[in-house]
Amino acid sequence: MTQIGHDIADFALDIPGREGARIRLSWASATDIGLRRSINEDSSIAQAPIFAVADGMGGHSSGDLASDAVVSRLADVAVSHFLTPDQITEALVNATADIEKVTDTSMLGVGTTVTGAALALRGIDPCFALFNVGDSRTYLFEDGRLTQVTIDHSVVQEMVDAGILSAADAESHPDSNVITRAIGFGATPQPDFWMVPIRTGQRVLICSDGLTKEVGAEDLTGMLAAGASSLDTANSLVDAALKAGGRDNVTVVIVDVLEAPDDREFDEDIEDTAPRRN
Question: I need a labelling partner for 145 at 20 to 30 A (CA). Which of 95, 226, 246, 269 fits?
Answer without folding.
Answer: 246
